[in-house]
Amino acid sequence: MTFSLVWLSDVLKAAGLKVAPVDGWASRGRGDVGQIMGVLLHHTAGPKTGNMPSLNILINGRSDLPGPLAQLGLGRDGTYYIIAAGKCNHAGQGNWKGVTAGNTNFIGIEAENTGLANDSPWPEAQMDAYHRGAAAILKHIGRGAEFCAGHKEYALPKGRKSDPNFDMNVFRSSVAAIINGTTPAPVLIPSVEPPQPLAQGRPTLRRGATGELVRQVQSKVGVAVDGNFGPKTEAAVRVFQGAHGLVPDGIVGPMTWKALDDVALPVAPAP
Question: Taking the complete model, does pTM exceed 0.70, yes or no?
Fold first, then answer.
């Protein structure tokens, strides 16, 4: 069964955000959601290292709480992992603007952060994506920034939750500016290499791409060459980008193509 929030991917992509759908997300959920009234923000309280190390827990849940635990996971590099299109166990008991059924009426976003001083300040790319993703969802459902709540604000009894660990009033101000069009649009990765010496006009590749160019990338980043840009290829691209001083977003755009051009293809053994 496909659940109601299948629009999440298109809305986030249209906002210029990096999106990584998790296999099976459109039919994942604890039943369907009701009328969506806003977004509820969280931090994972997960590991200090890694881009989205809490992803499996968000999909499958914990021993005390079955998954999925949020519709969206937000990695440290600003990538949105789309986990579920249905209802998730992310809210619990609470109240925000009269909405008391958080799991039914709020979209949950779990951003990767320990919630401790050792993981602050948050990465700029992640916080910018947090603002833009919340704004895109609210704009889509016809709500203002006041319907963007932190779990710590929603949860009852008061003090039950402490996430996310930043000032929600400041956050909502940034979201409102994006909704109102006073914040500059993000700089998007070109869909093809821009005209320049030696550029080959190759398309930007990301998860879901297929074909010979994907095979070339796979050969150079050291994963199985099958022509399908899946999660293992994305992870290997992230590692390659990090090792070459690039933003590890898992997307092969002009700068990553340029770095890949300096890597020799492996030579097949002689027969």
Answer: yes
